[in-house]
Design goal:
Layout lengths: L1 E4 H11 L4 E4 L6 H9 L5 E3 L4 H15 L3 E5 L3 H15 L4 E6 L19 H6 L4 E3 L7 H13 L6 E5 L1 H5 L1 E4 L14 H12 L4 E5 L5 H15 L3 E3 L14 E3 L3 H4 L5 E5 L17 E6 L13 E4 L2 H11 L8 H17 L1 H13 L5 E4 L3 H9 L8 E2 L10 H11 L5 E6 L10 H7 L3 E7 L4 H9 L15 H8 L2 E4 L3 H14 L3 E6 L17
């Protein structure tokens, strides 16, 4: 036992959980915590971005590339609301993010007296964006609540959690024992259900493996490749599942390939995916029998119609399944044809975007990290960029969060070590986060930002042109001079007129190990979604 403040106890509990960096912005309700961090700053580093939205984005990016929980910190009220978009993205992508959210003094919560930063029902707001939320009412509760928050992130489906912390609780002093992290049971695969999947695969001549964002990390990466080889089966990766298997593996296919495979597939086994279209319907797999494996039982229910439903960790099931299945003939030459035809079709229909995608891929090592904004190159990258290593591809999942990419990439670069990080963004999305070039400069974060400038929200503009008869509204942009902006922030700048220049610029930025902007002026690209639909006229 030792006498300490709530801020000291919280800081020590975070350190005991292995936290080395907190992404946060100080404020009066958090003074007790930041003072505690001051006393332990040789063990935990407070990294301060320039907007509260960036705290949770950075924490998410850090988690995505390291597998370690990311921690964010904001003041109550407007701070919590600003951080909400990052929490929503982390929730959509099943990311381990802990939000340390200040509150008004504990005795005033819910009173509606207009205390500084007070908003109605802050707790309920946070609960809608988290798996678990708690608010200590006594300083003695802080250590165990920190440990429980980390246990929640590491158990079952990983999603964000939050602790709400009143300034009075953070300043209170008590004799405390911080303790150690709570134990987390290793995931277990139900043998009877795995046996059912093994029997389904043994009876199948044309099986398909489908993977989502629940298949993460090096262990799953290795197991999935072994299973695909044993079955000679295609592995179809959802957008969230990219990086579950090396794109160079002859069995690896992008999400759109499921449309062709479903015509003749007789079994589909999906690991760690919601297995839904963007419109909330089960993915169409024709007459094939379906097995779903997901750690979240909610993702096994209607509108899905599985023949076999397994509530379990995807990696645990893969481990047992690889030991059970026997080598069998699968798709053979047809799988090679599907890969070749799919790649040729992509290159024919979105050749201008693919030139830049290829340049970025050629610039990065296999484990180099690519962060994908919702921009014209980014859309094509969801199926055209070959992800070659686990935890090397980041996108916003079903949340589709425009403007998330640059601060998320900053957090990724903090956690990436020597791995280079490239973020692709547009002049629309970058407008959410221009101020964070100051963060990159302040901390020497070697993030490479490839910025495509077409002076419009490109996808909105194209839809208005093609679908609504050229009735343009709200889609044009007025941009700053990005070269002068880079000079103002002290950031390296390169103007790239084509894909070759982008590749040279990235190579130079990697060598310099400094934050850099590579601006690419572009005009209208072809539709990035040639496989989905032709626009209807309105």
């Amino acid at each position: 036992m030792a006498k300490m403040t709530g801020g000291d106890a919280l800081t020590q509990a975070l350190i005991s959980e292995g936290v080395e960096t907190v992404f946060g912005i100080p404020g009066v309700q958090l003074d007790g915590l930041t003072d505690g961090m001051y006393r332990r700053q040789d063990e935990v580093h407070l990294m301060v971005p320039r907007h509260e939205q960036s705290t949770t984005y950075m924490a998410d990016g850090y988690h995505r590339v390291t597998g370690k929980p990311g921690v964010a910190m904001v003041v109550p009220g407007p701070g919590v609301l600003n951080a909400g978009a990052g929490m929503a993205t982390a929730y959509a992508c099943s990311s381990q993010v802990m939000l340390l959210a200040g509150t008004i003094p504990s005795t005033l919560v819910g009173a509606g007296l207009g205390a500084l930063h007070e908003i109605p029902k802050q707790t309920e707001t946070i609960q809608g964006l988290t798996k678990w939320t708690a608010r200590p009412t006594r300083v003695e509760e802080i250590p165990d609540l920190v440990h429980e928050g980390f246990r929640q992130m590491r158990t079952g489906r990983p999603r964000p959690v939050a602790l709400e912390l009143g300034p009075d609780i953070l300043h209170a002093v008590a004799d405390l024992e911080v303790g150690t992290p709570f134990a987390v049971d290793a995931p277990v695969a139900p043998e009877d259900k795995v046996a059912e999947i093994a029997q389904l695969l043994a009876a199948s001549s044309r099986p398909v493996i489908h993977v989502g964002g629940g298949v993460k990390g090096q262990r799953a990466f290795d197991l999935l490749a072994r299973l695909a080889d044993l079955l000679d089966a295609p592995v179809v990766m959802s957008e969230n599942g990219r990086g579950a298997i090396d794109a160079r593996d002859p069995h690896a296919l992008s999400a759109y390939s499921l449309w062709e495979l479903r015509e003749t597939a007789d079994a589909v086994v999906s690991f760690g995916s919601r297995f839904l279209t963007p419109f909330g319907q089960q993915l169409n797999i024709g007459e094939a029998r379906l097995a779903l494996v997901n750690v979240d039982p909610a993702d096994l229910t209607a509108p899905r119609r599985p023949d076999i439903a397994v509530t379990a960790d995807a990696t645990a099931v893969l481990e047992v399944l690889v030991a059970r299945v026997r080598r069998q003939e699968g798709w053979g030459a047809e799988l090679r044809r599907l890969r070749e035809d799919g790649d040729a079709r992509v290159r024919a229909q979105v050749a201008p975007q693919m030139a830049f995608v290829d340049a970025i891929r050629a610039s990065l090592p296999a484990d180099g990290i690519f962060v994908n904004e919702l921009t014209q190159i980014g859309y094509v990258s969801t199926y055209g960029y070959p992800v070659q290593a686990p935890r090397s591809y980041v996108w916003p999942g079903y949340q589709g969060t425009l403007g998330y990419a640059m601060p998320t990439a900053l957090g990724a670069a903090v956690g990436a070590g020597d791995r280079p990080v490239v973020v692709v963004t547009g002049d629309g999305g970058i407008g959410w986060s221009l101020q964070e070039f100051a963060t990159a400069k302040k901390y020497g974060i070697p993030l490479i930002t490839v910025l495509f400038e077409d002076n419009r929200f490109g996808n909105v503009w194209r839809i208005q042109r093609d679908t609504y008869g050229g009735r343009f509204i709200g889609s044009d942009l007025t941009n700053p001079d990005f070269e002068l902006l880079a000079q103002a922030f002290g950031i390296d700048f390169t103007l790239a007129d084509d894909a070759d220049a982008v590749q040279r610029g990235i190579a130079a930025a990697i060598a310099a190990r400094q934050p850099a902007i590579i601006k690419v002026p572009v005009d209208v690209f072809p539709s990035p979604w040639p496989f989905i639909h032709e626009p209807k006229k309105h």
